[in-house]
Input
Amino acid sequence: MEELQVLIRRLLWMFTAMFTLIITFFVGVFTYEPSTETVWIPESEPPQTEPWQPKNVLYELAKMTPQVRRGYFLIAETPKYMGPNAEEVTQRFTGNTLACANCHLKAGSQAGAASWVGVVDRYPQFGGRANKLGTIQDRINGCMQRSMNGKALDPDSDTMKAIVAYMDWLGEGLPDTRKKEFKGYPKIQIPEVAVNLEKGKRIYTKECVPCHMQDGQGVLLDDASKGYQYPPLWGNNSFNEGAGMHRVLTAAQFIKSNMPFGEATWDNPKLTDEEAYHVAGYINSFERPSKEGTENDYPDKKSKPVSTPYGPWADDFSAEQHKYGPFPPIMEYYREQYNITKTK
Ligand code: HEC
Ligand code: HEC
Output
């Protein structure tokens, strides 16, 4: 009898212990929350302690290969090496004294500023402006001939190769999950109204004049051969009429995420979408270099971005409306007429 009691007691103990274990297990499973900081690391990659960060370009300058370093100077101090007054006469390719990095901030490493991190892998890519598959060299020459108001580089030249090598270097190690962040500009909500130049001027005076000056001509660096401390926004030394920045919607996206410089970033902007839009219209209301042959851009006119300020277009909206909006009615027209959904 005694023995039976002992046996029962032991069995009870065993069940209680097992029961507790099982409960503990399930409580653990159901209350487990993975930390949001956790980074999933594929097995094939070496373990990482820090999440991937874009390169700190200036810090790495000394470690670059000579070709990559040359690429860096070409894009950061463009006027000195490729500008209209460049020492080497055969290298005078750009028509203005901007640097590529005046728009592609932090030497092309800044997210939300049409960065070049991972850009080489995005090409060849279909481009509506030429209506064909374009290479990274074609795209660079697009900015050479428009943003820089200059001439195309020979795709096989050492200059072009150095620029591409630099861009390639910037994208080293970029994880797939971060690719989107480094592409283009964050979109803005497109206002229903047309640009109001009076509002644009007020915003410009308050937010932009301290650096870009009232006349929009900016301020040169102490060593003027290297270009600007604060680049010009219109006039002879600015981007030409065929440039992407001359489209109000593109300029508004850039401004929203990047200006005023040092204050606004893509994840912490200062201006509202509508403020960025009015001021983008304002800076694009002034004279700038013209571009020949823009009528041939977008051989398929239906693919032309709605805020392209020069014709011809595949619609009857006025030149004024293509420059200053309102854009939603134009977008609606393409949806109804051609079944095309336009985002820009
Ligand atoms: C604190 C100074 C500062 C303020 C304020 C500022 N910017 Fe800029 N802006 C810069 C600098 C510096 C660059 C070039 C960045 C570089 O080279 O790294 C630049 C570049 C630009 C560019 C592209 C390059 C070009 O010349 O076209 C545009 C467009 C622009 N700014 C518009 C604006 C607008 C619009 C405002 C007001 C909403 C503004 N900025 C306010 C300093 C400023
Ligand atoms: C006035 C401003 C400006 C300047 C200066 C400029 N760019 Fe650009 N660049 C742009 C804009 C705007 C885009 C299109 C961004 C978008 O809509 O995603 C662009 C796009 C590009 C792209 C394609 C990016 C991508 O994600 O596909 C490359 C490459 C490029 N630029 C290279 C250059 C080089 C090299 C220079 C100097 C020779 C230069 N740019 C000078 C404004 C500029």
